[in-house]
Amino acid sequence: MTKNQAPNNKKRKVQAPRINIKPETTKRIIIFSIAAIIFGTAQCSFFSVLNICPRIPDLIMGLILATALCDNPKSAMALAVGAGFFIDAIGGGAFALSPIIYFIYAAIVGYFSQKFLKTFPSFLILLLPSLLYRALMTTLLTLLYNGFTLGGGFALTLLLEVLCTLVLCLPIYPIINLATKPLSTRSTFSF
Prior knowledge:
The chain has one domain: Arp2/3 complex 21 kDa subunit ARPC3, CATH 1.10.1760. The protein is globular and about 95 Å long. The model is unreliable at 185-191 (pLDDT under 50). The chain is 64% helix and 0% strand. By secondary structure, it is mainly α.
């Protein structure tokens, strides 16, 4: 340092890097987080404790399908992982299997949802193979946990689970369709 220079005793302020998150992304996170909490809690707490249904329905599967149709496949895949961890955390299954199962499901459904119109009949058409996927996953997990043996009443149990899931997933599409309306751009509302 030379004689003519003053000492620089001022400390620099350290600033965190700015992350630019679009308002639409924030809305998506809020809407889908609330939906995952509501449907995940209903699936793991409400339907598993109260004997309203003969089997526990998979509401998260219907939520992922509705998200893929009403919003986009990327949102459905992010929701699948988050909801899968949430389901595992509140006691819905073996830890870390639900996010993987739901992510694979969201990737498959996301691919096919791009080829369909965003309507309730499309939801029904995609829900039927989704129920088959659910039945396959239930069978594989049952075989894994029971030492590769199935009980005598397994087919009836599986059928009841698929029917409960079908009936209780029907109202999810209109709810998510209504909830994702604020995510639309303003250009669609022009007069």
